[in-house]
Design goal:
binds adenosine monophosphate, Rossmann fold, binds magnesium ion, alpha/beta, 6 strands, 12 helices
Length: about 280
C-alpha cells in the first residue's frame, strides 16, 4: 500500500486525518533495499529526460521546520546525476526580491529542458509563512492561489513535469528532532530560535497548508502529502512518486532518442563515404 496521499483538485484537506507515522507493511531494512533499486530506476529515467531534452522536472519540497526537506534532497542527489540537477533554496526575501512580484525570484530558478531542479521551500511560502505572520494582508495573499495555479500551468505547458511534496510530521516528532539538534554537536549549527517560535504557530500553519494544498493541487501539478515521521518511509514514497511521474514519458523519450540516434549515425556514415 502506498502511504502518500495525492490531493484531488479542490478537495478539502485535513492533515489531522493523515498519519505522519504511516509506513509500508515491511521493515526499514527492506525499505532501504527497495530504495536502492528505486534510485537506479530514477537515474535511468533521468538519463532519458536529459538526453531527450523535451521536458524538465521540478520537485517542490515544502514542510515545517525539521520535516526532512534537506534529508530528502540529499537522498535524491545521491541517486541522480548531479550534472543536470540543481537545488534552489528560498529564504526570507531580499530587498530586491521584495521589490518584485512574488514569483519573480521563483521563475528564474525553474529548470530548463533536460534539467531537474529541486525547490527547498518555494513560492508556497508566500501563502504560508506570509499568511501566518500577516506579512501582507489577506487581500494580497489570497489572490496568489490563482497566480500560482496559472504560473504552474505555464510551466507544465512548457514541458515541465511538476511534482509537489508536503512532508508531514507530527508535533512530537518535531520536538524530538529539535531537541536532538541541541544534543548532537554536528547538528547544533541547524538550531534556530525561529524554529521554536514557528512551532508555537502549529495550528495556523496547519490551516495555511490545508488551504494551499486544496487550492493549488491540480491535475497537471498535484500535491502529495508524504508521511514523514519515518525517514525511510518518506524517502520511499518520494522516489515512488517521482518514478511514477516520469514513467509515462519513457516510451516517447526512447522513441525520440532512437530517431535522433539514427540521424546521427546516418550523418556519420555519409561523412565517412565522402572521405573515401
Ligand atoms: P530555512 O529553510 O531553515 O533555511 O529557513 C528559511 C526561512 O525563510 C524560513 O523560516 C522560511 O519561512 C523563510 N521564508 C522563505 N520564503 C519566505 C517568504 N516568501 N517570505 C517570508 N519568509 C520566507
Ligand atoms: Mg530551518
Amino acid at each position: 500500500m502506498p502511504i502518500a496521499i495525492q490531493i484531488a483538485p479542490g478537495k478539502n484537506v485535513h492533515l489531522s486525518k493523515i498519519d505522519p507515522s504511516a509506513s509500508p507493511d515491511f521493515d526499514k531494512e527492506e525499505g532501504q533495499a527497495r530504495l536502492v533499486k528505486l534510485g537506479r530506476r530514477l537515474a535511468e529515467l533521468q538519463e532519458l529526460l536529459f538526453a531527450a531534452g523535451d521536458h524538465s522536472l521540478l520537485i517542490v519540497l515544502q514542510g515545517r521546520d525539521t520535516a526532512g526537506k534537506d534529508g530528502t534532497i540529499k537522498k535524491i542527489l545521491e541517486a541522480v546525476n548531479v550534472q543536470s540537477t540543481r537545488v534552489a533554496s528560498f529564504k526570507v526575501p531580499t530587498a530586491e526580491e521584495l521589490a518584485h512580484d512574488f514569483l519573480w525570484r521563483v521563475h528564474r530558478q525553474t529548470p530548463g529542458l533536460g534539467e531537474i531542479v529541486i525547490f527547498n521551500r518555494s513560492h508556497y511560502e508566500d501563502v504560508l509563512v506570509v499568511r501566518v505572520h500577516n506579512l501582507v494582508p489577506e487581500k494580497v495573499w489570497r489572490p496568489r492561489y490563482e497566480a500560482i495555479r496559472n504560473f504552474e500551468e505555464l510551466l507544465v505547458q512548457s514541458g515541465t513535469i511538476l511534482v509537489k511534496f508536503m512532508l508531514h510530521i507530527s508535533p512530537d516528532e518535531q520536538e524530538e528532532r529539535l531537541l536532538a539538534r541541541e544534543e548532537d554537536p554536528l547538528k547544533s549549527w541547524k538550531l534556530s530560535v525561529g524554529d521554536w517560535k514557528e512551532r508555537a504557530h502549529w495550528d495556523a500553519y496547519t490551516e495555511a497548508y490545508e488551504e494551499a494544498l486544496s487550492e493549488c493541487s491540480t491535475e497537471s501539478a498535484p500535491w502529495h502529502v508524504i508521511p514523514a515521521n519515518k525517514k525511510w518511509a518518506r524517502d520511499l514514497a518520494v522516489f515512488e512518486i517521482l518514478i511514477a511521474a516520469l514513467e509515462p514519458y519513457e516510451a516517447e523519450w526512447r522513441t525520440n532518442l532512437e530517431a535522433r540516434g539514427k540521424e546521427a549515425k546516418a550523418e556519420l556514415v555519409s561523412w565517412r563515404e565522402s572521405q573515401k
